[in-house]
Amino acid sequence: MTKPRLILDQDDVLADTHGKLADIVLREFDTQLTSAELHQDSFYETLSQADQKRLYKILHEPGFFSDIPLIPNAQEAVLELSKKYEIFVATAAMEFPNSFREKYDWLHRHFGFISWSNIVFCGDKSILNGDYLIDDMPRNLKTFKGKGLLFNAPHNLKETEFERVMNWEEILKRLL
Ligand SMILES: [Mg+2]
After folding, report:
1. Which residue stretches of the chain are H helix?
2. Which among 55, 65, 139 has a CA at the least distance from the CA of 96?
3. Are 18 and 97 spatial neighbours (Cβ–Cβ below 8 Å)?
4. Ligand 1 center–CA 49 separation, angstroms
5. Calpha distance 119→135 (Å, rounded)
6. Are 46 and 31 within 8 A, CB to CB?
7. Cα(24) to centroid of ligand 1, in Å?
8. Domains of the chain: which residue ranges?
9. Quick check: is 9 catalytic?
10. Given this model, what pLDDT does residue 156 score?
């Protein structure tokens, strides 16, 4: 029997990219914002234009994607889900071409059980074909033909169009 295909986004689904950026803002930027405030909305809303530009530059620095912390329980949950689903990781890496190697090595280090053949570096995710897609970006779920699940993130809190999942525990309950 073929397993249903489950496609996972990398940033802010497997990797806590927003969390790493928020830590950089707190540590290196001259800001009055608290960690809680930086997790209540997108950086477009919480930061000045100058700080947004500075953060965007940091995203392009070599090494940025190498040591992003894991989203809690992602490893265990994906391993569990891989028994029932064919797992793919699809990341819009084309936005940051320098990130390919770092993103690949990060996946290999934390999700070594996912074969290279199941990793997709793409631009526009409407090319994806699967049964489920878990992503924090509503625009990626909009064009997906299967069932989309919106992974809760500071930049999507106001989104109501898609079924929201708060964390990996909830995903296990929903999909197993
Ligand atoms: Mg993402």
Report:
1. 17-28, 35-38, 43-46, 49-59, 74-81, 100-110, 138-142, 168-175
2. 65
3. no
4. 22
5. 15
6. no
7. 18
8. 5-16+68-175, 17-66
9. yes
10. 98
Distance 12 CA to ligand 1 centre (A): 5
Region of 93 (left: φ > 0; alpha: ψ -120 to 50; beta: rest) is: alpha
Dmax (CA) for the chain in angstroms is 56
Instruction: Report the pLDDT value the prediction gives residue 98, as an integer from 0 to 100.
Output: 84
CATH number of 5-16+68-175: 3.40.50.1000
The token pair at 14 is 């497997």
Told to judge if 23 belongs to the known catalytic residues of this protein, a careful annotator would answer no
**Residue 87: how many CB atoms within 10 A of its CB?**
22
- DSSP reduced 3-state for 96: coil
Contact partners, residue 56, CB within 8 Å, separation at least 6: none
Task: Please classify residue 59 by burial: count the beta carbons closer than 10 Å to its beta carbon, then call 0-12 exposed, 13-18 middle and 19+ buried.
Answer: middle
Q: pTM here? A: 0.96
CA of 106 to the centre of ligand 1 (A): 15
Catalytic site residue from 9, 12, 16, 135: 9
Which pLDDT band holds residue 76 (cuts at 50, 70, 90)?
Answer: very high
The CA 1 to ligand 1 mean position distance, Å, reads 30
